[in-house]
Amino acid sequence: MAPRGLKRVAIIGGNRIPFARSNGPYATASNQDMFTAALDGLVSRFGLQGERLGEVAAGAVLKHSRDFNLARESVLGSRLSAETPAYDIQQACGTGLQAVIQVANKVALGQIDAGVAGGVDTTSDAPIGVHEDLRAILLRLNRTKSLGGRLRLLTRLRPSHIIPDIPRNAEPRTGLSMGEHAAITAKEWGIERAEQDELAALSHQHLAAAYDRGFFDDLVTSYLGLSRDQNLRADSTVEKLAKLKPVFGDTMTAANSTPLTDGASTVLLANDQWAKARRLPVLAYLTFSETAAVDYVHGGEGLLMAPAYAVPRMLARAGLTLQDFDFYEIHEAFASQVLATLKAWQDSAFAKERLGLDEPLGAIDRSKLNVNGSSLAAGHPFAATGGRIVATLAKLLNERGSGRGLISICAAGGQGVTAILEK
Ligand SMILES: CC(=O)CC(=O)SCCNC(=O)CCNC(=O)[C@H](O)C(C)(C)COP(=O)(O)OP(=O)(O)OC[C@H]1O[C@@H](n2cnc3c(N)ncnc32)[C@H](O)[C@@H]1OP(=O)(O)O
């Protein structure tokens, strides 16, 4: 069955709650609480009360088993029509952008007219598991009918069984944390401490300026007493950041690494006709996307370097160069990871040996990079970052009146999700 023709995918806008530092103001909020708040804020913003949308696609990187379909439960908790289908996806920190791409593809194919994509995460309410042996006993206990059998099982309980299984911010195949992996890449690419601190300080200064000029007034809904991203420190300067001690490798600190964060974001996507019928202006269009993965286990590539591969493939398909953009939104998992990616794109050997290209992609105009701040300042609630970036870039393009923006997000598991927005 062939589709009848592709439709343009319009980004109508986004809504998110301010991002909070882990174990801060959202410590008692669940993923479902936060995502419902972000979704319901989107409903208010765009008059979607009672609307039956094509679908809601969203996800969380860290999820309790009770949230087997977080997106659907959040729809039922929101003022969208209860007849809106919803499902969860997960691609680590690429989740939010991948959700946008999923919904966009269905809009493009004419399978749905409009949908919401989003993501949420909380490291304050991480899903703690129980000891494997205790789990086995509890499962058997649930199946055993006789009192004697149950009592016999209970005698197998040991004090060590109360040790919880807490999810680690680490790669299962290497045992190394994201920060430790990023530190290896930073060393390989010779990324200096000073340039990392400069990028981090700029992220804070840009985000603070954007809040001050009201840029986020129609993108961020106050929640649980927060009206701005809690991690934001407008007074961040390279001099202050230079004083912090390294936490990963020799150059990465708490300021040039993202903090553990809680938060949620949503984006409304639609075809032109749907938007026009509701008199909703289009901010920008999603025109291309690409996902890549690298073999960081055996292939000698850095864990967070997959966007360095996804972007050239996407540019080739779009017939564009790296310089053909007005804005670059490169997720700041770590300052060193952004800088390593930019350096790789300028490197002749990387172009030839890793990308199979004759020439490197070249440098970008750094004044176009993360102009309203990014994850180092806003924080990084893993699955919520993609929605934050898409909504921010769409609004930037709308403000400019025309242009093109590149989104690049690295993800755990050696993956990268990228996209192009145009006005
Ligand atoms: C997951 C994916 O798929 C892909 C990705 O995105 S990978 C990224 C995933 N994210 C991560 O791995 C999170 C990494 N971050 C962490 O683990 C932790 O935040 C961390 C270990 C880096 C730091 O944790 P911490 O020590 O609790 O940080 P915190 O106490 O806030 O800060 C340490 C110090 O730096 C200071 N500091 C932090 N930012 C600052 C700033 N902008 N200006 C001035 N000082 C600052 C703090 O004030 C604090 O100072 P004191 O010790 O004097 O109080």
TrEMBL record:
Keywords, in A-Z order: Acyltransferase, Transferase
Q: Which GO terms describe its molecular function?
A: acyltransferase activity, transferring groups other than amino-acyl groups
- A Pfam family that this protein carries is Thiolase_C
Residues in domain Thiolase C-terminal? 289-423
Instruction: List residues of the Thiolase N-terminal domain.
Output: 9-271
Q: Which residues form a coiled coil?
A: none
| Acyltransferase recorded as keyword | yes
Q: Record's Gene Ontology CC terms?
A: cytosol
Q: Where is the active site?
A: 93 (acyl-thioester intermediate), 380 (proton acceptor), 410 (proton acceptor)
The family note in this entry says:
Belongs to the thiolase-like superfamily. Thiolase family.
Protein name per the record: Acetyl-CoA C-acetyltransferase
Question: In which organism is this protein found?
Answer: Actinocrispum wychmicini
